[in-house]
Amino acid sequence: METPFTRPAFKPDAAFASAAERFFELLKTFGMPGAAAAGDAQDWSSLAGTLAGQFEAWLRSSQSAGPWFAAANAASPGPGGGFGAAQPGSFGPLPLGAGAAPQQDAQRTWDLFARLAQLQGQLASHWSEIANSAARRFITRLGAAAGGAPTLDNALKLYELWVNCAEESYAATVRKDDFCRLQAELANTSAALLVEQRRHAETLVRAFGLPSRNEVDALYAQLKDLRRQLAELTDAVPARGAGAKRRAARAGGTRRRNRARKPRA
Amino acid sequence: MRPFAPGAEALFPELTVRIAATLARLREVQGVTVGCSAKRAVWSCGKTTLHQYLPLAPAPPRARGRPVLICFALVNRPYVLDLQPDRSLVRRLLAAGLSVYLIDWGDPDDAERCLDLEDYIEGHLGGCVRHILDSRAGEALDLLGVCQGGVLSLCYTALHRKQVANLVTLTTPVDFHTPDNLLSKWVQGLDTELLMRSANVPGEVLNGLFLSLMPFRLTQHKYVRLLTGNCDRRTLEDFVRMERWIFDCPPQAAVALAQFVRWFYQENRLARGTLRIGGRRVDLGKIRQPVLNLYALEDHIVPPAASSAMQRYLGSADYTGCGIDTGHIGMYVSRKAAHSVPQRIVAWLKEHSS
Q1: Prediction pTM value
Q2: Buried-most residue among A6, A222, B58, B237 (CB within 10 A)?
Q3: Which residues of B participate in catalysis according to the annotation?
């Protein structure tokens, strides 16, 4: 899923509109018509339930587009891409005929997608814990702020309180060891998926006689080694006045003299 | 009872108008420019470019004293240090008559997936230092490292003591295992071998990770706050400039990132004295230069304890550590810090200029 925070070209207006929409939704919940009269305990629990539900939905949507899933999103095949689009049924090796990945490779990739889905399920239980804890904190602290006139200032004060509660609940959960392990496993599985898919691609490019990423990496390593050897040899030459050139060569750098910088691609 | 007294619906039309107006104004200022001081590229290596800032007023080069080289983090763009005239560390340094250079690491492409920390520290940072010293016939410069760039600067200074006269570090972690370091907790279980074998890490992934440290404040609350008070055009322009910088993260070379995670976050090698770059041990105890270390007291990325620990490991007898009452990013651009941080740096460098 794409959110304003995961788009390559970030648009602050889109992020603002999204946050404002959430804020609006929250205010509607605060002023829910039909809520019970003063002191009614059932009213609080109903409010807490609604808040927790909305909050959990937001956590799920924004975090599934978060850092750990981004790699999997980028790597996922099929129309639309994205983790959500990568259902086991829709996934298969790249359909490029002769070089298509062997069956066992496709199975391994399928397994990794399945593992990601499993981990996402585990993550969802943490979102639920955070959302419920935040709603409880909010209700507990509401106290004197409750029942105020519906002005924008009061709305923002309530919102501030809500954000504090949300951050505190979030911080309490995400510092736990099991959450940290889960986060790491999500990242590792996403990375493994990427590596696996690159392996498929390598098989394909080899079939077509194209240079592969591994071959380019090997060339890069060779080049680096040659540069190092050159620097050592240059250092060994006791030529007077060659210091600047030697050092420049060692760094592989180029001096620019008052010329405009080339635009980057 | 409910959070609002009955009649909350009356608020919605007013709120809708305010949201629409803010949205329209945000769209109006989206074209703001970033970066304000004139500079020229003087050296490059791969995607790394060394920039020299032009002096604000003509002055004989000797009057400008020892050059200052700013080494920013790999994970963000350095233009935040020169964002706009009233929030520019670079400009304040130039105004103090200093000769300022800055490293822009650029965007490593897929062919540079295997760039490692030795390449960055010895090749790129080292190349910049050598170029500056050669071109100015100098023996040493002042190095100003920011965040991860501070870590690279510490490594470089420990390995090349003669080339650095004074070291300034901003929001720079040294002890990566302090209990309040959430980022460190999260990455302990990362498989760095796998990370090395995968592709370069897109900037959005890392940025998403940073935002995940405080998601409600950083992806919701700060936007809703635009609805409060007088959000004039200038305030919105400042806001959009910061947004542009926050979401403009370069990709990370896979190998260098994996090494950084493993060596620093997982194994805490810098603090433990077990870090080796290019086969040489990085011993912070060998840093005997004067060091000014500024850290943010409300930093959610580099906790103050991670940075203030620096003093314990340095060999320098002239160490000044100072906590600033702001957050990680506020250290570079908040109105409060925009004045006090450059002032401290300039005063300290002048004190240590001889």
Answers
A1: 0.85
A2: A6
A3: 147
